[in-house]
Structure prediction request, 553 residues.
Amino acid sequence: MRRCVPAGMLVLLCVAAPACAQNGGVLHFCLHGEPKTFNPILVDDEAAENIRYLTGGVLIRLNRQTQTLEPGLATSWSVSKDGRTIRLKLRKDLHFSDGTPFSSEDVAYTFKTLMDPQVHSPTGDAFRSGEGAVEIKTPSVDSVAITFPARVAGLEQLLDQVAIMSAHSAKKEMAVLGPFYVSEYRAGSYVELARNPNYWKRDAKGQALPYLDGIHLDIQRNRDIELLRFERGELQLINRLDAQSYKRLEKENAAEVHDSGAGLDSDQLWFNQNPNAPVPEFKRAWFRATEFRRAVSLAINREDLIRIVFGGYAKPAYGPVSPANQFWFNSALPAPRFDPQGALRLLAQVGFRFANGELRDRAGNAVAFTLVTTSGNAMREKMAAMIQQDLSQIGMKVSIVTLDMPSLIERMTRTFDYEACLLGLVNTDLDPNGQMTVWLSSGDNHQWNPNQKAPATEWEAQLDKAMREQASAATEQERKKKFDEAQQIIYEQQPFIYLVNRDVLTAFAPTLVGAAPTVLTPQAFWNAEELRLAPATAGKAAQAAAQQSAVQH
Prediction:
């Protein structure tokens, strides 16, 4: 649930104590890809999103630890009853990193750019609630009112993704209001961030934040090299670890790794129900049968997947929302079960027969299909092999085909030449509106049968209705009720067979002080302005204690 957090709230810094820390120094860690842009309006990749988070000043900030909203550049705000207008009171006497004054003109300029259809902003798409232009009023230098053509569900939370740009700076988008600014960039090598001397936030003692002089971001796609450099002390954090790397570091020094529990991301499989796909009609009839999909779900041993593939660092997935999403998760959903006999009973209800270790449909066709997944991903390939073995126990013959990601995307989105797919979903948004293109039958990411002109099934029509009603509901409680209904439909129909939510695994050097890893992105450095570096000789001692640090907001 969103709420405004009062100034002066306490933030628990739980990994290390600041007693041995010092101000200054440069934090080193890796980006796992090349940032496509430094323009915050155009961000659509993880590397650029991480830089936007570290450099951008936002009106309202989602606290990654408490999952509540906090004042940013706006000290207070209110949303109209119709959900179309948000009025914000802005902080006074702030300046961009280059010294340009900040005012309501900058907010107006940012939103005009964001909503310009010629700009094609991925961030702006979330605000496009209806036909018509956005109206922006600036009654004073420290107040602004933004009115959208129709209700925008979760409007306040969406502002966490909008970095305010200067309307007047000669440096354009490179002038920022966040704790750091981009000081140097070498393509394919690194991005250098420097401390923003004009950053507005201070700690409880009145000391200016951030504590660090800067952050050096190496562009490194190879996770093995990243791990090796961390072990050698060249990096101070790793934002996401796989289970194998986590275990390796844990053996070397358990104090350096942290398991935050199940994250928002999921691994799932689905069957191709697209009527235009080159799939035999009798197979498409299987895939469209709810009983078939639910039987497959019952026949997969999720606990074995967790134990063998993820080394215990994952949780069974209930459905489209992880329990880590504290407000939106439907806690009434039953836990996923492993029940092969129950799967066979479900299949028998719709004419399938199991005999001599083989499953056949009503017409006598042996149940066999191909499961595609990504090549070069050892964990997912192992998952596919275990699913293959589990389904053989109910007489299904599964063939596994691994493809490079471009080829797999081609089959998923253009040729539809596949029968079943095993893949993961990266979910960075707590709000269900971030999943609209997945659940609406007309959506591009409605993977089992995308871009429908009209719902192909009655349950998809019901799902469309529930998702649209949650998006237009007047209160969060009403939205929650409708989205619970949507989650119930998804659970019953299993268009995606959710398997696991992977744990969020991070690593921190002993010299990094103040880290408080969370399940929300960016998991390891969401509080970068509060991080400090302890002297190398004091690093071990810095792990020994934890204390609270009051941070002024």
DSSP finds 16 helices and 24 strands in the chain.
